[in-house]
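hi! just following up on the protien thing from before. the input was this:
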Amino acid sequence: MRKSKVKSSADPSEHRSEASPELVPELRAGANPLVSGEPGTWDRLIEATGPASILVWIRSRMSAAERLRSSPEDIWQETLLHAWRDRERLRWQGLRAFRGLLLQIAQNRIGHEVERRQAQKRGGGQLELSISAPGPGSGHSSFEYGAAGPVASTTPSRVAIIAEQADVMSRALELLAADEREGVLLRLFEDLPLSDVAARAGISLSTAKRRYLRGSAEYARRLAEILPSHGTARG
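and the predicted 3d structure came back as:
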């Protein structure tokens, strides 16, 4: 059996603050990738946000009980669908801002799932949206929900690759001390400034910086140890 390749570029510290033409060629003309009519633009944009690291973050924000009821992969799919649905109302402010928006939507979806489960216990509650293509009369074209939309980013094979990358990153994170792990999650995966990391933890900025530097170095070391045993190829 051929093993999947998980490249070292799964490290979220390699995220770029702005999407470049190398990642999303449509930006060469200063275009807004959110409303591009070019097939593949949306998929390239999502790839540029580091979907595996976002999936790791989603997993970290769901309790064990919540993960038993709703998979993080489903939350990721719902996140993409909501972002796609609202794309024309969004102002493009760069990759970092768009990635932050995806995290916000994902957090809302996690909360929605909790509310939906509670509503079901009371005899109601349905998902607002489905990742599947809409039926006739929905007002959406097959182009919108086909190769240019969220379905292309959430095919079973694509989700499986993202999940495998997330597994490797999660294993490395789990080997960190709890306070260092949270600092790495907040700084690397959630893109929070160290001042916000310190405020969340109720510690001084110098302590937050020290924990983060120690944790990120240990995370990188653990990731390097895990990747070779995972049958990986470095990129």
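The first helix runs from residue 41 to 48.
Residues 1-19, 129-148 have pLDDT under 50 and may be disordered.
cheers
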